Amino acid sequence: MTSSSPSPSDGAPAGAASGSTTSHGTAPGDVTGAATVVGVHRLVLGRTAAALATALIPTTLTLAVVHTGTASGALGAILAAEFVPMLLLLPVAGVFADRFPARRVILAADLTRAAAQGGIGATLLTAGVNVPALAALAAVTGGAVAFGTPAVRTLVSATVSGPQRQQLNARLSAWQGLAQFAGPGIAGTLMLGIGAGWSSLLTAALFVGSALTLGGLTSPRPVVATGNGAGTGTGGGDARRAPFRQDLRAGWAETRRHPWFIANVIGHGIWNMTAGVLLTLGPVIMMRHHGGGTAWVITLQSGTVGLLAGVWTAGRLRLRRPLIAVALGASAYALPLAALAAGAPLPVLLASYTAGMFGLGILDPLWETTIQQRIPAEALGRVGSFDTLISFAARPLGLALAAPAAAALGMTLPLAVSAVLVGGANLAVLAIPAVREHPEPDPLHTPAPPAAAEAVGAVGAAG
Questions:
Q1: 342 Cβ neighbours under 8 A, 6+ residues apart
Q2: How far is CA 228 from the centre of its chain?
């Protein structure tokens, strides 16, 4: 959910040079024509539909494979076929997000996912679990997820600025969080009611719907980077676009210019890894010591309440040093890990998990807004893609390591080490001066006009 300037319409594709002080043609943070009540509602509705559709996919595929009795290795191959291209293509997708208008990139990604899910539905209805076909279509889905993700930050940052941007990020976090939480349950219900094939076709329809919400939204005209890396600030003229590899290297160079960003990304990666550990060992502990699966379901529900409360709070905070709150929010995840390691009673586990997820709710909107404010608009897609890459890769690592570690060492030690890691890594970020500093306002960032404030306020009232 991660500053760009407005343009009357989508511009021609162009490159982005690292280190340029010029934004996408004009001042970053200006409000585009999408900053209206209708435009902001479309943005929130579309990204929520896409999040729900994305959450349906793994559960639908899992239940389809399990229902037919296909070997578990087939399921692993299909899910890996989606995951691996997504990781590999994220840095490339970051370049695309900076070169091309964000709306067009997201539109192409949504329609590609719709086509892939339509193909999966047709395959399940006509040929059953055809592993090679499903794996190929899952790979297309994963690639489209990679290309759509960095561009969302760019589109959000181009829609509103200032406090309204933080509020919009909070609304997106809340609705997308609800969609991700509801997705598996909805997928299971659809599987039982209409079957996996029709469920995949419904998922395709959701992606078509999310694509349709992009109609009428505008995105900034990217700068054209010349061969020597200078941005022209426009989408036309005789400027030559920088080579793709140069743009990719420039994005990494821009990333390294921000130690606060790298330190936070590492901390958030550790958070995702330790979340994998908790999600693997937590249910086992609940089954053995707290009365079974019901206790785990209640724990997850309490976490959802904490997450939404944190997001609601984040949208209303006005902090001069938001990165301090980001660090504290991420480190709060040490609480449920430590409680599980200590064998705490169920009420303590519920309270600690609620507090940990409340911290995540605070973290996400503040982090997205900080990136959009501090990273140059012409490099936002590339820099943000590294953040997404680490986060996406770390969760499966934790899931993979948890069970072998628990088998070898018992469950207490992996949980305790995870608590120390996530707390220590994120609190250590506070030692970086740029985290504790209040950055000077960018003179190019302008307050959102009344129409934008009304738009976000309307979405907030609806949420």
A1: none
A2: 33
Spell out the SS3 assignment of 263-276: HHHHHHHHHHHHHH
Rama region for 291: left / alpha / beta (φ>0; ψ in -120 to 50; rest): left
Residue partners of 149: CB distance under 8 A and separation at least 6? 90, 93, 385, 388
Q: 24-33, 106-115, 337-346: which range is least confident on average? A: 24-33
**Residues paired with 225 in a beta bridge:** 231
CA angle 142–173–251, rounded 5-degree value? 55
- SS3 assignment for the chain: CCCCCCCCCCCCCCCCCCCCCCCCCCCCCCCCCCCCHHHHHHHHHHHHHHHHHHHHHHHHHHHHHHHHCCCHHHHHHHHHHHHHHHHHHHHHHHHHHHHCCHHHHHHHHHHHHHHHHHHHHHHHHHCCCCHHHHHHHHHHHHHHHHHHHHHHHHHHHHHCCCHHHHHHHHHHHHHHHHHHHHHHHHHHHHHHHHCHHHHHHHHHHHHHHHHHCCCCCCCCCCCCECCCCCECCCCCCCCCCCCHHHHHHHHHHHHHCCHHHHHHHHHHHHHHHHHHHHHHHHHHHHHHHCCCHHHHHHHHHHHHHHHHHHHHHHCCCCCCCHHHHHHHHHHCCHHHHHHHHCCCCHHHHHHHHHHHHHHHHHHHHHHHHHHHHHCCHHHHHHHHHHHHHHHHHHHHHHHHHHHHHHHHHCCHHHHHHHHHHHHHHHHHHHHCHHHHCCCCCCCCCCCCCHHHHHHHHHHHHHC
Q: What letter represents residue 384's amino acid?
A: G
Q: Return the closest-CA partner of residue 427 out of 419, 438, 416.
A: 419
Rounded CA-CA distance 75/135 in Å is 9
pLDDT, tens digit (0-9, with 9 covering 90-100), for 35-76: 456 678 888 999 999 999 999 999 898 888 888 776 667 888
Per-residue pLDDT reduced to its tens digit, 54-65: 999 998 988 888
pTM equals 0.79
CA distance linking residue 86 with residue 348, whole number of Å: 38
HSE, CB side, 13 Å, CA atoms: give it for residue 433.
0
What CA–CA distance (Å, rounded) separates 428 from 287? 35
- Identity at 73, one-letter amino acid code: G
| Cβ-based burial of 342 (10 A; exposed 0-12, middle 13-18, buried ≥19) | middle
CA distances, 92 to each of 16, 99, 245, 314 (Å): 13, 11, 9, 31
